[in-house]
Amino acid sequence: MGVTIKDVAKLANVSPSTVSRVISNSPRISEATKNAVYAAMDTLKYKPNAIARNLANASTKTLGLIIPNREENLLKNPFFIQAMRGISLYSQKKNYKIMFSYGASPADELNFVREFVNSKWVDGIILLTAYENDQCIAYLNQQSFPFVVIGRPFDIHDILWVDNDNFQATYNLVNHLIQKGMHEMAFVGGPKRFIFSKDRLEGFRRAMALRNLSIDERMVIEMPDFSEEYGYQAMAAICDEHVPQAVVTTDDLLAFGVMKYVREHGLSVRVTGFNNSPLSEYQTPPLTSIDIQAEKLGYHAAKLLIESLEGIENPMNHYIVDTTLIERGSTR
Known about the structure:
Helices cover 45% and strands 15% of the residues. By secondary structure, the protein is of the alpha/beta class.
């Protein structure tokens, strides 16, 4: 039997898929890796035939989209719908189709990523969030499979990603509330595993610290998911300790739950959200929220990935989308 791609991969200490991408001259492969593969090919006298080259260059013109949510909750969080719209707008312009799956846990998401990669149904993958110790990112890097992340990865080296400056957005919001005379604030965040959750909490802490305002740690609550029910539970726990002047939340769904508790108990508390979902302006009172421009996040994610797939040179591996504070209602 002649020399195979697997033999080349073993000698070059890379995966067979990486060898295939070197053969197809993928822009995702570093020059160092290409040189190692070429050296192994020369040593083994491996000559890829025309069929192998065609297979390596085969394109499905389809992107895989991994949505981190349960089926029954898919339509409850407008962020995903808005991001998908942005992804679709750019993809259709470039004649790419979208194939999506949703996972109820990081393990589910990894299974779908593996299926997309091994099935060869898609040319690249869009991840709709980034975790600490993200297994999907680790796997895709290991396989040298093209992908982009909506959300700042923990390790940004040689990864395509788009995001907002979540730290700065929250920092600016808290400063705005302080200027309105609110010095006693509570914080309701989402799961710690999300990097943006950590960035938003750090923005809250830094803004309070720089104004020499103390934080009661009993009033900093991080919930396991983004939902109205969890927001309600968090506010109940906060008010068991003390009723604050304001509550900063990291998602509109959490804010809706906080506001429901405030209304039911006749409290005078300023509540802010994140994402500026369509229902924010119809709350009682209307919800002040940070618009993260989710559609633009999706649009630029698709643009970064498709340009990479098509070999278009781009000096930047990431894109930061601006945020806007949408203030509604009274100051209290």
